């Protein structure tokens, strides 16, 4: 399969609608790929907190409109990164959107672990409650977002839900780039899965982004890694490598904790 990670540059100066149009053109240009991935909160910016109250949008809002059309035009599965979701009956959420190649919005994932400690997302956004996987033509995607990468128990839960390709959109800061790379590889090794981690480039909200989107195979090998700036990272791999790695080195068979106990006779 072929996957393209669109490491979009997000600034404070580009209006959201212009960035949506630019991102949609980049998605359309990936015709021939099986899966296209965008970063976290790219329409408004993951650290542009001031823009969130007015820029939040419903699931059928402007980002969904342009992304559905772009997925359909390119004929690709599209993980369109995440938006600031306005829930009419609740708080705002950091919500990822997955579109099928016919443009239908088939899965959404509300980020579970909110970043910021006593500020930003952690204060103004609601926490997702559900583990989400997405069945596709080429395997089962496990959905996580940025800070979620630091919580291995989420990835174990995704494994138990059948995930084979872990897709992680992010707005990960340059200051902690080493963690980004290390954790992406660790999650791939632990779950014996592909990790496709699509970060943001540029600077917004005063935070320089790390870039360095990365694709890691189930053995922890880096198949492709982007640089600092805006870039489309394209990689080809065989999703069947997941089952092969799990059979060749059956470490997951030796789990003792957190799985249903064997029946005592
Ligand atoms: O965990 C980190 O270092 C960065 C997380 C983050 O920026 C986010 O979740 O938006």
Automatic annotation (TrEMBL):
An MF annotation (GO) of this entry: hydrolase activity
Superkingdom of source: Bacteria
InterPro entries the UniProt entry points to: C-N_Hydrolase, C-N_Hydrolase_sf, UPF0012_CS
CDD domains for the chain: nitrilase_5
Keyword line: Hydrolase
Pfam families with a match to the protein in the record: CN_hydrolase
Annotated ranges, domain CN hydrolase: 1-239
Family: Belongs to the carbon-nitrogen hydrolase superfamily. NIT1/NIT2 family.
Protein name: Hydrolase
Species the sequence originates in: Kitasatospora indigofera
